[in-house]
Design goal:
The protein is built from twelve helices and eleven strands. The protein is α/β, with parallel strands linked by helices. The protein has two domains: 64 residues; 200 residues, Rossmann fold (3-Layer(aba) Sandwich). Strand 10 and strand 11 form a beta hairpin. The protein binds glutamine. Glutamine binds next to helix 7.
């Protein structure tokens, strides 16, 4: 019978051989999922033998990870801003830098902020988190993908957020009417399709390309700024997450579309990551 401590050692060696980053941590977290425990749980049971079906399941999940499937899809969930979100290949895995976007929104609200629109909601990480923190607001989450909206809805339920609605829509060709919003937030696709080849296999092979890549990096920023006067109230705020080196271009697009008091915020890696402003 294989003990936990030995299984972990074998698993970490296997993942290391397959060039998986942080092989020991990955091995521990995958085993935690199978045993329904946390890392402390496995540390305190090092000598416990695994059942045959547990070993088989562990082997299957390790194989998936060795093929560079993201750990979060294997575990099925990810923590974001203190909440927990289901993730699957229909949605982008929420990134830590997007927590900064949520943080900027929460720190710069006015008491009049009631109607909030999240464009390209994916797993719902932004909209659901805002809904949780702002129980008196109404959050509208919009996405082009029906599968993503299903996951986002599940995440609203999972986190007991009910002040939220979901809309299937392509913001590039349409926009929500007749409602107007006090605040719009978006983490749109912003990676140039050309850069695809330089990216990790985990991302390229598994995450939804429509949520990541775009032919023209400024396409979504331009479109959202252009439609904002029709869907955002006067003095309403617009918050964007942007990619590396994009902040000044996005600022310019905002300025050209009647936005003022534009602020750029750096993330922990000192990358200009958030651009936000106010409609005149
Ligand atoms: N809003 C989601 C996130 O920030 C999805 C973004 C996207 O699909 N581009 O993770």
């Amino acid at each position: 019978m294989l003990k936990i401590i030995d299984a972990l050692k074998l698993a970490a060696e296997f993942l290391e051989k397959k060039d998986v980053e942080s092989p020991r941590l990955n091995s521990e977290l995958i085993l935690c999922k199978i045993l329904g425990t946390d890392r402390v749980g496995i540390y305190t049971q090092f000598d416990k033998p695994l059942k045959e079906e547990e070993v088989n399941e562990y082997r299957a999940l390790l194989l998936r990870r060795s093929r560079k499937e993201p750990l979060q899809y294997i575990l099925g969930s990810v923590d974001f801003y203190g909440l927990n979100f289901s993730v699957d290949p229909s949605v982008l895995i929420p990134r830590p830098e997007t927590e900064l976007l949520v943080d900027c929104v929460l720190k710069n609200l006015t008491p009049e902020t009631i109607n909030i629109l999240d464009i390209g909601c994916g797993s719902g990480n932004i909209g659901v988190t805002l809904g949780k923190h702002l129980p008196n607001s109404i959050i509208t989450c919009l996405d082009i993908s029906l599968e993503a909206l299903t996951t986002a809805r599940k995440n609203a339920d999972r986190n007991s957020v009910s002040n939220i609605e979901f809309l299937e829509m392509d913001i590039l060709s349409d926009y929500p009417v007749p409602k107007k919003f006090d605040l719009i937030v978006s983490n749109p696709p912003y990676i140039a399709r050309l850069e695809k080849n330089d990216m990790q296999k985990e991302i390229i092979d598994y995450e939804p390309h429509d949520a990541l890549f775009v032919d023209n990096e400024m396409k979504f920023y331009t479109r959202i700024c252009e439609v904002s006067p029709c869907i955002l109230n006067k003095n309403g705020k617009l918050f964007f997450e942007v990619g590396l080196g994009q902040a000044s271009k996005v600022r310019e697009i905002m300025e050209n579309n009647n936005f003022q008091n534009i602020i750029v915020v750096q993330d922990l890696a000192k990358i200009e990551r958030i651009v936000w402003g106010e409609l005149k």
